[in-house]
Amino acid sequence: MFSPSDFRKGLRIIVDDQPYYVVSYQHFKMGRGKANIRTKLKHIKTGAVVEKVFGSNDSFKAPDMEERKMQYLYENAGEYTFMDSETFDQISIPVDNLGDARWYLLENSDYKVLFLDGQALSVDLPASVILEVENTEPAVRGDTVSNITKPAKLQTGLEVKVPPFVKEGDKIKVDTRTGEYIERAN
Fold first, then answer.
1. Host domain of residue 89
2. Quick one: DSSP state of residue 167?
């Protein structure tokens, strides 16, 4: 059981017999009344976003979700195919369910796939991934003012802003939560 004090971004809960996850939350207290939590929740199956206000004494159950380790194989016509590492069963997840996670998937890599009622819903990504720079402009000589960035296209098609010293062929670490450059990888 969860209470509103346990809320954090990405927490999965059941509200009105429907599975949601917390997109954002804000604690507020009005005058001498009790504290409330204002939240934005995203429906796990449909993707609809709703705003709800909860009291500090409310409680929530976790949805009955299953995580399975699966290997990402390929993308075909907006369907991303994964294979169960133990049973070798293959499943396809539509691009709409993956959202921005599709930009961080590398072929033949293992990921945790989330299932609800036997249906594959989404992929649980690590906090950061290492991707190779496929295309970026060369640095301009003498352009050394601080915080200068340039666009770079990565091997998955994702575009990020990188420092001027990053060149084509470099591997960089990217934060999967924000989509931002972290550092150059070895």
1. 65-124
2. -
Domain identity same for 36 and 81? no
Among 126, 132, 136, residue whose Cα is nearest residue 185: 132
Enter the pTM of the model.
0.70
Q: pLDDT tens track of the chain, all 186 residues?
A: 888 788 888 788 888 888 888 888 888 887 777 888 889 988 887 778 899 988 888 888 888 888 889 999 999 988 999 999 889 999 998 888 787 888 999 999 999 988 887 788 888 888 899 999 999 888 776 666 667 888 999 999 999 999 888 889 999 999 988 889 999 987
Q: Which residue has the tokens 């504290």?
A: 35
d(CA 175, CA 161): 12
Residue 116, domain CATH: 2.40.50.140
37, part of any domain? yes
